[in-house]
Amino acid sequence: MDHIKLGLSALAIAAISAPAAFARDQIQTAGSSTVLPYATIVAEAFGENFKFPTPVVESGGSGAGRKKLCEGVGENTIDIANSSSRITQADIDTCKSNGVNEIMEVRFGYDGIVFASEIKGPEFAFTPADIYGALASNVAKDGKIVPNTAKTWKDVKAGFPTQNILMFIPGTKHGTREVFDTKVIEAGCKASGAYDLFKAASKGADDKAKEKDAVSACNDLRKDGASVEIDGDYTETLARIAANKDGIGVFGLSFYQNNTDKLRVATVNGITPSVETVAKGEYPVSRPLYFYVKKAHIGVVPGLQEYIDFFVSDDIAGPNGPLAQYGLVPDPELAKTQEMVKNDVAMGPLK
Amino acid sequence: MSIGILTLIVIALAAGGFLLGRQIAVGKVAGDIRKLHSLPGYYGQTVFLFTAVPALLLMLGWLLVQPLLIHERVGAMIAPEDIASGSSASLVMSDVRRIADGLALIEAQGAAIPADAGTVREALGRVGVALGTDVKPSVYAAAKAYGAMSATGGKAMSVAVLVLALAGFGFAIARIRPAFRARNVSETFVRALLIGASSVAILTTLGIVLSLVFETVHFFKVYPFADFFFSLTWNPKFGGGSDLGIWPLIWGTLYISLIALLVAVPVGIFSAIYLAEYASKKVRAVVKPLLEVLAGIPTIVYGLFALITVGPALRDWFAQPLGLGSSSSSVMTAGVVMGIMLIPFVSSLSDDIVNAVPQSLRDGSYGIGATQSETIRQVILPAALPGIVGAVLLAASRAIGETMIVVMGAGAAAKMSLNPFDAMTTVTVKIVSQLTGDTEFNSPETLVAFALGLTLFVFTLGLNILALFIVRKYREQYE
Amino acid sequence: MTAEATNIPAPKRRSLYQLDARTRRRNASETRFRAYGVAAIAFGMIALAVLLWSILGQGLSAFTQTRIAMDVTLDAAVLDKSGKRDPVELAKATTLAYGKILDQALVKQATDKGLMPEGLSAKDAAGILSKEAPAQLRRMVLDNPALIGTTVQIEALANGRIDGLLKGRVTMESAKLDSNVSPAQLVLAQNLKDAGLLAKSFNFDFITAPDASEVRPEAAGLGVAILGSLYMMMIVLVLALPIGVAASIYLEEFAAKNWFTDLIEVNIANLAAVPSIVYGILGLAVFINFAGMPQSSPLVGGLVLTLMTLPTIIIATRASLKAVPPSIKDAALGIGASKTQTVFHHVLPLAMPGIMTGTIIGMAHALGETAPLLLIGMVAFVRDYPAAPPEGFLDPAAALPVQVYNFTRRADPAFLERASGAIIVLLVFLALMNVAAILLRRKFERRW
């Protein structure tokens, strides 16, 4: 098989009559579009200050990035996968079966997720229960599960303005959606008491099955147009808010920080999102960001070790580095990560 | 000798052979070319083909085989213990190639090649070839051997290719006689080439099917077949428990494409007719390329146009007054905007086809007193119909495959509804979003993209077979 | 019989100049028909005008950029601690060190000339400089180490928000809410502008420079993307046009009507409807995973786009071959030309305008396509220029539509203008291709 591949590559070269070999000089990374801005900032600074070429940073989603990482060892596979969620056992197994035995897991910071609306609109102070009450298809009312009929925010909770409920939430392909589901919708579901009612109503065999049913009932969002899924990027959400002044969008913290003149951010549980409040753990909606390094490529792809050292160094990922300025929440345990990266410690089994 | 130069030499030789062959043929009949079987140029052509084609084929074959042989030999030189754990022989080989390239570069600059493996990294660093680690002796030896073998192989190839080219040259020249059927030989060759070109389409289809089938099978192992084809809900979720029914997506695709064609086909055909039949030459020269620009504007621009301008306008002026909902992203928005994008697909091609209808048909029609529009409706359009159907099919194909406009104009909600002011989505959009998302790759939520792709492929295949049938049935040839 | 005949009223005698009802109806329908044509074209033109207007309105400003003129003293003690001007030693001074030098120079200049507004800290004042400026200065010094120790006059890029002030995107009101710029910084910029030290000038870098990261919208350019697109178009043109035309000729003129021909025909029609991302899947599976070609390379991109464009070219070419009247062929065959001669000498030249149209539409489609590139690693951040062809076909590169797509996804609003600017460049490419096609078409077009 290898031979056919090699031959075909040669054919490709011959087709354009180039006497070149395939030795790759630059680092290649791929993955999450949430990590992409940070990775490009680091790649740019790396290319400027080191003699190595600037790494190529692809987007395409965390899942696709990890898939590419696990495709095998060799030059036409990537070196680093950026991921906005933790690698799963299934991915590790794929990696193993393709000969990628050792992966380094590097957590370099956190991403805050915020709710924001048109700058001229009213202010909102949400709790997860409010958002659940606005978006879920079934809500708890007087100890009973009833279909959600709220039309305006005022119907959800007295004190909110009479503004139509219209939320732009990430589509199911986004990692952000997973965080939104677990940290907002499920939390709100539990806080509003709906979870217990769902669980009681479930016909599951044992407690576990009942819990599963309840969680899936919690995540059932209404489909009458109150919540609009966005498959594009935050820029699309922003454009939709510009076209629908009633809309409230879900954004990444760094995106909001670059558009504070257009968006009004909502507090969650009374906490205003910022790099500091997320770092302290006060603001509830956040998630860790990772990149995964193929250990077999360290020492083979020029500059790879230098790049990952550079990425997690205090100058870059620290609280005063360019990443934090852009909106990354620095990892309080960065020193530990630096130590790990320096020694090229591969990740153990998932806990 | 580099491959480029070698190719040039072979081609130059072949070109020379063309001239020579021609001359010899003319010479053999003492300038009276009536005595030749074919025109003199064809004799030249046979020489050209016999010189260039076998030699270039040999070169391709050589380039295919040589790396295999070298790889085999050099690979054996690397000590197994030098392959780090977790690494692979192919990775080490890439290092070998990198070092060999660097050494060639050093040599080209006239510097001395480092004697032992220890100093290689530094020496290569000076010429701009970065290595990841220090070089192990066995790897360095392998790299030097690799370089030497490539060089020898290259020389041998040059010689072999040139010899073959000359042999072909001589053979073809020797064959030239007045009775030699040179035209038939070269035409057979051309025909083979044409067949080869058209089979690219089959290879592409094969490639697509193969690259989709594997993962689709994978998908149906983790997700029931019946649910995919017969469920009417599309609702993927993180962590399993998704409903992945295809029908809402197919419905959205057909609905949006239909609206797009309702916009593009009349506008496109009327533009084409006006340009071909009424417009002055000057107007035509300006308007036609301008319309074609519409096809070249990146779809993301149309997407933003749909999102910011058309969507809210349709909502405020039509949907809300008519009580059909208050969504700014709708099938209508995406369809109308996509229709605008498709205008040139219909107009430009139809224009060329209408233009190609013989003038005699028009003259005949005018002669019996028909007005211009009657001529167009009753004579020209029927004559141009097969071509126009082709153009419309092309537009329809583009409509089905479009992503960006749908994402921004029609939203991402999979729904089945008759209301054109509802948000819906298409198969293509979901292929892109499921494939590039953050979900785990081996989950049904991602693999469904392949199943969607294959289904769409089969679906459009069916439509196309139908279209072929219809076109063939109604095709008429006028003259 | 005669009685009936006499029942037919004699035709009215009337002047030819007086139209009867039927003629009037026919003429009205003629006018209507014509009006439909005009309306259709007007619709297309209006749509085009609106689209172009919005692109130009947003994108033209990308071609100018704000720069700050300043004198910078390159302190040898900071930049070259060894004092030997050894390139290896010099490279150890990172952009951080250069950044500090620039910041000091700016603050000094502003204070000396009395341009610093009240209450603006030195750190914030330096914030009006682009983060790209230190990198530019460093490159300048590394290229010419003799500059160390001297004072040089440079034109440093201003921050994207300051640039926005001069382009009307940023105002005092928006700055109050903006976390990335303060009104005091805008006042400083205004002062510098009034003193003639800060000005907008034409931005060649937008066309030649590589992409920049999200924190430097002011430095982002299209150089790598233009090269990448150019390389891919070269491959597409060289492969798709000959293969497409050859396949069409075979199918239209030579192929016997049998199952094999039908198979090819249905295949081609179907391939035109395959969503473009599926070609990306194909490219990933065949060219990268199987054939082992490098990721993110224009070669793979060009091959994928070739496969994608082929059906379009084939369908268009066949339509125009079909449109050549049989009389032409019959005439050629009649005077003894062979089938091949007829096709290549007579039919093909006459079908050329249609082939050109098809190729242009196909290439335009290929030039603007993003989705298939997503899977073969070309939707990427690439800062190093690919080498000259043919080696450059294997180097990583971006592409113009990819750059547009990337720019529109970025958080900083300054990238919106860049995205529109990139579209303008894309349209210019398209216009050039169209002009070429028009010239060719004019040469070949005829009517029978």
Structure notes:
Chain C: It is a multi-pass membrane protein. Chain C: It comes from Paenirhodobacter enshiensis. Chain C: Keywords: Cell membrane, Membrane, Transmembrane, Transmembrane helix, Transport. Chain C: One of its GO terms (molecular function) is phosphate transmembrane transporter activity. Chain C: Pfam families: BPD_transp_1, DUF3333. Chain A: Keywords: Signal. The complex is a heterotrimer of chains A (351), B (479) and C (448). Chain A has helices at residues 2-15, 36-49, 62-69, 89-97, 128-135, 153-156, 175-191, 194-201, 207-218, 234-243, 253-258, 275-279, 304-312, 314-317, 322-326, 334-342; strands at 28-31, 56-58, 80-83, 103-118, 125-126, 138-141, 144-147, 167-170, 227-230, 248-252, 263-265, 267-268, 286-294, 329-330. With 351 residues, chain A is an alpha/beta fold. Chain A starts with a helix and ends in a 9-residue tail after the last helix. The model of chain A is unreliable at 1-22 (pLDDT under 50). Chain B folds into two domains: 3-180, no CATH class; 223-474, MetI-like (MetI-like fold, Orthogonal Bundle), CATH 1.10.3720. In chain B, 75% of the residues lie in helices and 1% in strands. In chain B, strands 1-2 form a two-stranded antiparallel ribbon. In chain B, a hairpin with a 7-residue loop joins β1 and β2 (243-244). The longest helix of chain B is centred in the middle third of the chain and has 41 residues, at 182-222. Chain C has 448 residues and is mainly α. Chain C contains 20 helices and four strands. Chain C has helices at 2-7, 21-59, 76-79, 87-90, 95-112, 122-126, 132-143, 160-167, 172-177, 183-194, 205-208, 223-254, 259-273, 276-290, 298-322, 326-334, 339-367, 371-375, 400-409, 414-444, and strands spanning 64-73, 151-157, 198-202, 380-381. The two termini of chain C are 49 Å apart. The model of chain C has no long low-confidence stretch (mean pLDDT 85). The interface between A and C is large, with 59 and 52 residues. β2 (56-58) of chain A pairs antiparallel with β4 (380-381) of chain C, so a sheet runs across the interface.
Draw up the topology in text:
The complex is a heterotrimer of chains A (351), B (479) and C (448).
Chain A: H1 2-15, E1 28-31, H2 36-49, E2 56-58, H3 62-69, E3 80-83, H4 89-97, E4 103-118, E5 125-126, H5 128-135, E6 138-141, E7 144-147, H6 153-156, E8 167-170, H7 175-191, H8 194-201, H9 207-218, E9 227-230, H10 234-243, E10 248-252, H11 253-258, E11 263-265, E12 267-268, H12 275-279, E13 286-294, H13 304-312, H14 314-317, H15 322-326, E14 329-330, H16 334-342
Parallel strand pairs in A: 1-2, 1-3, 5-12, 8-9, 8-10
Antiparallel strand pairs in A: 3-13, 4-10, 4-11, 4-13, 4-14, 6-7
Helix pairs in contact in A: 5-7, 8-9, 13-16
Chain B: H1 3-28, H2 40-77, H3 89-108, H4 120-126, H5 137-175, H6 182-222, H7 225-230, E1 234-235, E2 243-244, H8 247-278, H9 281-296, H10 299-319, H11 331-355, H12 359-367, H13 372-401, H14 404-410, H15 427-435, H16 444-474
Antiparallel strand pairs in B: 1-2
Chain C: H1 2-7, H2 21-59, E1 64-73, H3 76-79, H4 87-90, H5 95-112, H6 122-126, H7 132-143, E2 151-157, H8 160-167, H9 172-177, H10 183-194, E3 198-202, H11 205-208, H12 223-254, H13 259-273, H14 276-290, H15 298-322, H16 326-334, H17 339-367, H18 371-375, E4 380-381, H19 400-409, H20 414-444
Antiparallel strand pairs in C: 1-2, 1-3
Helix pairs in contact in C: 2-20, 5-7, 12-15, 12-17, 12-19, 13-15, 14-15, 15-17, 16-17, 17-20, 19-20
